[in-house]
Amino acid sequence: MGAVPNVTPADALAAVRNPLAFVAARWTPDPRTVRRAALAALVMSVVIVVTGGAVRLTGSGLGCPTWPKCTADSLTTTSAMGFHGVIEFGNRMLTYVLCAAVGWAIVAARSQKPYRRGLTRLGWAQFWIVMGNAILGGIVVLVGLNPYTVAAHFLLSTALIAVAVVMWQRTREGDGAPRPLVGKPVQQMVWFLVLAAVLLIAVGTVVTGAGPHAGDSREVERMPLDWETVSKLHAVLAWIVVTLTFALWFVLKAVDAPAAPLARTRELFLILLGQGVIGYVQYFTKLPEALVGLHMFGSCLVWIGVLRVLLALRERPEVVADLPGPSTEMTVGTRA
User: Fold this and answer.
1) For 6, which DSSP code?
2) Would you call 309 exposed, middle or buried from its count of C-beta atoms within 10 A (0-12, 13-18, 19+)?
3) CA dist 270 → 277, 288, 302, 306 (Å)
4) Phi then psi dihedrals of residue 287, to 5 deg
5) The model's pTM
6) Is the pLDDT of residue 133 over 70?
7) Distance between CA atoms of 224 and 212, rounded to whole angstroms?
8) CA 209/CA 85 separation, integer angstroms
9) From CA 336, how far away is CA 332, in angstroms rounded?
10) In terms of CB atoms within 10 Å, which of 45, 91, 127, 318 comes out highest?
11) Residue 2's pLDDT band (boundaries 50, 70, 90)?
């Protein structure tokens, strides 16, 4: 057995004052570990969206009727609350798993050598979004699943996914200045695609807020809009996103773009096709819960795909430190 390192009182004090710095001074993860930690945070940010959808689709939104406790007298669900209480409380517990995944990403990024401040900040950004969304989730319960707060809850989860995607991408890049791989017109076209995707997701929350899946079997407030009209607007925006993606693929081929933007665009187009099929089938089959849940998962994949297209338009090389050249005195001495 190896010797156990001595921990001095000064070490213990340092660990209490700044535990991240304490861990970073004693552990250096390899780049693959950092990438996996960032990917775990991204996967959990998608999982929490899907399980949140399961809460709504099973009518368990008020399975725990208050917050932060599950009932006025119990922190956890009780047998009297049945299936709905288990679903709602289980989703609450998954927030701790998400926090653990984000915390692992922060620790891994902070411990990487050399230290990458920007990468660590992306991890902390995820942490604060999770904390904010946890509080907002409690508000959603306290106001009885008000559809506007539910929509905000989902949009904040979408922001979490965006930051997680950026962090995952940055773990595979250097910290050099970004170099564009395509021209300005193509970049502008992709930004239009991103804007259309944001509008598509936002209108999707309105479809949910006005649609039949209120989130609980009790009377729940709905958005005072015609559900079918909003669904048609959502479909129009979906076709705009599909058209922009298809056009982008042709443009990238025409300008002989590098392989990465082309591959990401092709992947996004395939995701959109699958998502479109699910969307139309669920519409014409009166929104069965399983298909709606699958459509929510698809919306996460679409958002990730759009962001990956955007991030593929540039590359960031490693920062190479300049090596010191020979001094003037040394050069003169050599000549002498």
Assistant:
1) P
2) buried
3) 11, 23, 10, 12
4) 55, 60
5) 0.88
6) yes
7) 12
8) 22
9) 6
10) 45
11) very low
